[in-house]
Amino acid sequence: MTTQQSSNALIAETEGSHEHLYGDGVALRKQYETTSDLDDLARAISTLRRAVVLTPEGDANMAPSLACLGSSLWLRFERIGDLQDIADAISAEQQALELTPEGHPDMTQRLAALGASLWSRFERTGDLQDLSEAISGEQRALELTPEGHPDMARRLSSLGISLHSRFESTGNPIDLDGSISAHQRALELTPEYHPGMARRLAALGSSLWSRFESTGDLQVLDEAISAEQRALEITPEGDPDMARRLSAVGASLRSRFKATGDLQALAQAISAQQSALKLTPEGHPRMALQLDNLSVLFMTRFKRAGDLQALDDAIAAGQRAMELTPEGDPDMALRLTNHSVSCVSRYEATGDLQALTKAISAGQRAVELTPEKHPDLALRFANLTASLLSRFKRTGDLQDLAEAISMVQRAVELTPKGHPEMARRLKHLGASLWSRFERTGDLQDLDEAISTEKRALELTPDDHPDLAGQLAGLGASLYSRFEISGDGQDIAKAISMQQRSVELTPEGHPNMAARISNLGTSLWLRFGRTGNPQDIVEAISVMQKAVELTPAGHADRAWRLSNLGVGFESRFQRSGDLQDVAKAISAKREAMELTPEGHVGVTVHLNRLGTSLLSRFQHTGETHDVNEALALFRTSATSEFGPPHDRLNGAEEWVGLLEKYNSSSPDILTAFDVVIRLTTLTTTLDQSLEKRYAKLVDTSGVPLKAASAAFALKRADKALEWLEQGRCLVWRQLTSLRTPLDDLRQHDSHLAESVVELSRKLEGAGSVKVAPRSGLSMSEKVSLEDQARDYLRSAREWDELLTKIRISPGFERFLEPPPWHTLITHLPHDGRVIIINIDSRRCDAIVLSEGQSTPLHVPLTSFSLAKCNQYRQDLSNQLHAYDCRDRGGSLTVAPEGGDECRAIRRVNRPNNGATVVQGILRGLWHDLVYPIIQALGIEKIPTSSTGVAPRIWWCPTGPLSFFPIHAAGIYTSAEGSESVLDYAVSSYIPTIAALTDRVKNSRPIQMAIPGLFMTCQPDAAGGSHIPGTTTEVQAIYELATKEGLRAERLEGSETTPARCLDSMEKFSSVHLACHASQDAKNPLQSRFLFHNGSLDLFTILQRSLKDADLAFLSACQTGTGAEKLPDEAVHLAAGMLAAGYRRVVATMWAIRDKHAPRVATDFYQYLVDHRDTVDGSGFDGTHAARGLHYATQQLRLRLGDNSDQSLLAWISYVHFGY
């Protein structure tokens, strides 16, 4: 107290003297260094500030006063963390340095002091500019320090600390090497009992630890621990740095545990960190850091031992650490990451969904706060991946999975070669890709998962604690590949790896149950393929152990119980032991009860329990089992949760039970309603067309089966609705993206523009070509995943947008498949629409006519699927025999006489019959078409009649889509000739809406647009020479110009795909005489071949063809779909309808080059003769069907007989649309 009063008196007496103020400031500063009393430091700073203010400019005391003020402010910042103090300190020290002349003895000290202040501010703000300036100043100070100078060691140590800090921010190994070198040299210069020895040992230990983290070199880690423990040993009790050093030792010992699995190292680490926390006073700036370090150590213990108390302690410590961390602190991202890891572990251990939500939120914020080039960015991406993957497994949200894959790919991309975390991140990437395969069935994901996990395994040393997890992950992926391929080597390797994984997993490890469960599943799968009873016995045994090891409340307990139930049921199927099926039901029932509402697995558990109950019913006949199974499948099908394919499985089981045990129940209509709706949900707009079509192969025929059930219940209306809603799903998606928006635009222009914008994005998603990813770099894969994620987001936005639009009055069914009663309100007045359904149980037709309020049902009792399939095979044989079917393959020399087909052809095959086609057409007439004609009362048109024949729009389903129904009839002289052509003019439509939309939205073509653009491409690359195309286009052009029609002709290399598109926008009609290439997997890649490139459907769809009217595709097989997807309109004609053309002339198979020119000219002559006399500038497209009818009959007359070859020549031509 006396000293303080004396100092105050001294200050009062010398208030006006800057020299004395400076001296007093220095004295108070020294007093603070003795007392650590912040009041002393505050008075020192206040006094030095007055000294600086009173010191005249140019005075020799200015630089010392500023320097002392700066160092005093730095001291206070170190105590209380006020950023204003460090800013003022740096400012004062910079001014002092500017006033210090070169060669001045204090230059080095002032450079070092400024470096220390800049480093301190960097520590607080993360500003790399401060750190770079600090290093620059410290390096200069070091250069100015002579050898043997007592401050040399201190300055080397300071530089080492700064270089280490920069390494931590940038990952530059040169900085880390420089840091270690500086610390080692500093220690060499430090005497044994020097007071700075402990500090310098600790700093060296920290840098060595960082080198270990980068390289995984255990010898470096041992050196780090040795240095840190020695620093701790020589640190006196009560030293303020004791807590910091204890914490550093804890971190290094944790690293030793992670690298070696040494439990003693982990226990020592926790003990050291707890001691550090006890030594840290409340309010200390390092309290948050100490809490976070302890949280990480508790988390490590939990991961090793499954100790839930350790997990709770980790979360509590981490939460408090975050609360104590101020906004803007550079350590906030790290603490958020650690807290995220703890929270996701709680979810996995307890199923607490709130903890998972917190984990993702914290992980996302951590990533946002981490600079682009920060060395920990990869780690934070990887941690966020784990959280997102966990939520995907819970909710099934594909957006979470897509983001998880994108995050972990970035983590791998950012991880340098040789980094110890590379193997773990590759494992996480493999697991994420495997999860997507399990959901979507994409084999590329599975192949990449296996490849990635193999690489991870190769990078993992035999003694590494992660080896068991790596083996388990690869084993699961090989299991999945075995399910697809049936390759016994895959399942053998999977079981071998999983067994070794279990052997390497210590007792009590939290992942033991998961690894045992996976082993049991693999043994069960092998039993299903080989029937080896030992496998199922062992499978059940290990799955029971997995359930026993899984604590109540664990997120995976339900799955393990369910898997155990599957094992019991499989044994029951072989043994018939009712005890096994009872155990299966019990385990599956418990699994279902444990599954919370909203969990993605709820439908799987419902389906599995239903399957076991059904198995018992089939064995015992107990009706309550089948009734409960029915109820479970119904609940699964109608659930709001779970992937559509799982719900669809439930719906199909529901339908199957009703059909088998209660086929007359009206519930079957409800069940099929659900099946059709769920089928549409399996093909989403974010998927490429190729993937959508691949998915639909599994459900092909479902709408036809549903319609058959509806016919049996005398519900033709329902059959019509299902056939319209369940067929042509992808085609309908394409057309919905291009629907006219006039009404919506008038109602809300903003919503209309949103529809247009999203439509364009989603058309891009559909056009993506599925290409192998194996040769791509990681950055290219990241780019692809980002694109896929954008498409997924756009698809979700599309669904949300449609929901928003449908709230508006008048738009309740916007872009929804129309109910049956709306289909009959816009039918064409001059004909009938006939839908023909074929199924294994029956064949029926539905007829829609203008003015009729209900559909007419015509049972076709003489036709069957078996007969249809036989006709199909016979027709296919004939098409091959006459070389009218093949699209690709090896080319042959074109035959003489110009009889080339407009398709790429293989070597001709011999004629294998002359009456097969006649027989097929006769069968179609007798059993399929004529009964409909009779039911409708359509009369045969007399040969001499000049009246207008009625029209029929055929909408065939299933394999009937490949038949020339428009030509069904009798063509043998013995029976007399009679066919559809004698009764009506035929057209085809993919769906009823495709026709009614064109009727409803029919509008006149703009005055400047009517006319015909035509091009011929006789020598396109990849196709045979077709000279007739030149003749064809020349004849059409001469006809058009002669009649004064607006026309444009471009031949061969005169045009390009882009120029052709420009012309298509300027003309309402287009005639393409060329080769065509149809891509059944990705129809948007179907194309017309030009001399200079090709024109694909996707490119056509990008143009605005609002006045498109007629497209004549004078090429081969432009109207033939894919055999595996007969109800998906996978052909060029349907694509042109989707592009906006109202009507399309196409071909079912190859057309002959010698016939095509005359057919085309006859067609256009008919249009010219029947054009609108008021405005004769263009073609009247409404007569296209009649024009084609006329043109093909003229070809038939020229051919002169009804041989199969002649029939195939003219019946190939078909008309689609209005």
TrEMBL record:
Domain of life: Eukaryota
Domain CHAT positions: 921-1217
Pfam family membership, one: CHAT
Protein name: TPR-like protein
Organism: Ephemerocybe angulata
